[in-house]
Amino acid sequence: MPANLRPPPALLIEPLVRRALEEDLGRAGDLTSDLILPPGQQGMAALVARREGVISGLQVAALAFGLVDSALSVRQEAQDGDKVPAGTRLMVLEGAARSLLTGERVALNFVGHLSGVATATRALVDAVAGTKARIVCTRKTTPGLRVLEKYAVRCGGGFNHRFGLDDAIMIKDNHIAAAGGITAAVERARAGIGHMLKIEVEVDTLTQLEEALSLGIDTILLDNMPPAMLREAVALNNGRATLEASGNVTLSTVRAIAESGVDYISSGALTHSVANLDVALDF
């Protein structure tokens, strides 16, 4: 695990894992494993990456197995943030065979999804290597899983945008329309915030950008601007505000976006549209 990468505290993730297990176990528990396997049967299983990718969620998987049976032995053989080839053994578990099979699906659901997020993030990060642009996520996360998905983005080498509505002021197009303009929205926001909060304003034209710059905005989101317009925006900005590009961010477009000179590139697809990494439990 990279030195600056820390998983979320167990206090935050345990309720998520517990709810997932409760959903799977229902009212009667694991009928199949309980009926087929005798209580004393022991087993060993390995969590294996079937495809190449960047790993995230191993602590979550370990927690899932531990909540099913605290007597299980869990040994990690990889770390979150590792890019691994297909066939890599990520974790080895030993203990009651029933418990291993009962915890299997929830553990795999978390690791597969979070590793998918980390893998997609790393692809964009690698695509912009050599530019100053940083890849960041958005609030377009799976309800209830934001803390884990944003952690997975960091596992992939990306950075986090705001975590929620309460940790930054972000004035978007609908706020501007409802307030009657950028200036009115910014003035109202500044009248009520403390000195620690920054303001970001979304713009989709160079005219709006000029208005936002005249107000001394901290960060400006350039929404759905093609690379040529982004370059104009960077020149117009001339280092005054932090610039974030968003919209139509794909592996085929992200390099051109980064080469425009923006500081950040945000992508909602990192958390709302990624494919799971194929991870399995081999018994």
TrEMBL record:
<feature type="binding site">
    <location>
        <position position="202"/>
    </location>
    <ligand>
        <name>substrate</name>
    </ligand>
</feature>
<dbReference type="GO" id="GO:0005737">
    <property type="term" value="C:cytoplasm"/>
</dbReference>
<dbReference type="GO" id="GO:0034213">
    <property type="term" value="P:quinolinate catabolic process"/>
</dbReference>
<feature type="binding site">
    <location>
        <position position="105"/>
    </location>
    <ligand>
        <name>substrate</name>
    </ligand>
</feature>
<dbReference type="InterPro" id="IPR027277">
    <property type="entry name" value="NadC/ModD"/>
</dbReference>
<feature type="binding site">
    <location>
        <begin position="267"/>
        <end position="269"/>
    </location>
    <ligand>
        <name>substrate</name>
    </ligand>
</feature>
<feature type="binding site">
    <location>
        <position position="223"/>
    </location>
    <ligand>
        <name>substrate</name>
    </ligand>
</feature>
<feature type="domain" description="Quinolinate phosphoribosyl transferase N-terminal">
    <location>
        <begin position="30"/>
        <end position="115"/>
    </location>
</feature>
<dbReference type="GO" id="GO:0004514">
    <property type="term" value="F:nicotinate-nucleotide diphosphorylase (carboxylating) activity"/>
</dbReference>
<feature type="domain" description="Quinolinate phosphoribosyl transferase C-terminal">
    <location>
        <begin position="117"/>
        <end position="282"/>
    </location>
</feature>
<dbReference type="Pfam" id="PF01729">
    <property type="entry name" value="QRPTase_C"/>
</dbReference>
<protein>
    <recommendedName>
        <fullName>Probable nicotinate-nucleotide pyrophosphorylase [carboxylating]</fullName>
        <ecNumber>2.4.2.19</ecNumber>
    </recommendedName>
</protein>
<comment type="similarity">
    <text>Belongs to the NadC/ModD family.</text>
</comment>
<comment type="function">
    <text>Involved in the catabolism of quinolinic acid (QA).</text>
</comment>
<keyword id="KW-0662">Pyridine nucleotide biosynthesis</keyword>
<comment type="pathway">
    <text>Cofactor biosynthesis; NAD(+) biosynthesis; nicotinate D-ribonucleotide from quinolinate: step 1/1.</text>
</comment>
<dbReference type="InterPro" id="IPR004393">
    <property type="entry name" value="NadC"/>
</dbReference>
<keyword id="KW-0808">Transferase</keyword>
<dbReference type="InterPro" id="IPR037128">
    <property type="entry name" value="Quinolinate_PRibosylTase_N_sf"/>
</dbReference>
<dbReference type="InterPro" id="IPR036068">
    <property type="entry name" value="Nicotinate_pribotase-like_C"/>
</dbReference>
<dbReference type="InterPro" id="IPR002638">
    <property type="entry name" value="Quinolinate_PRibosylTrfase_C"/>
</dbReference>
<dbReference type="InterPro" id="IPR022412">
    <property type="entry name" value="Quinolinate_PRibosylTrfase_N"/>
</dbReference>
<feature type="binding site">
    <location>
        <begin position="246"/>
        <end position="248"/>
    </location>
    <ligand>
        <name>substrate</name>
    </ligand>
</feature>
<feature type="binding site">
    <location>
        <position position="162"/>
    </location>
    <ligand>
        <name>substrate</name>
    </ligand>
</feature>
<dbReference type="InterPro" id="IPR013785">
    <property type="entry name" value="Aldolase_TIM"/>
</dbReference>
<keyword id="KW-0328">Glycosyltransferase</keyword>
<dbReference type="Pfam" id="PF02749">
    <property type="entry name" value="QRPTase_N"/>
</dbReference>
<feature type="binding site">
    <location>
        <position position="172"/>
    </location>
    <ligand>
        <name>substrate</name>
    </ligand>
</feature>
<dbReference type="GO" id="GO:0009435">
    <property type="term" value="P:NAD+ biosynthetic process"/>
</dbReference>
<comment type="subunit">
    <text>Hexamer formed by 3 homodimers.</text>
</comment>
<feature type="binding site">
    <location>
        <begin position="138"/>
        <end position="140"/>
    </location>
    <ligand>
        <name>substrate</name>
    </ligand>
</feature>
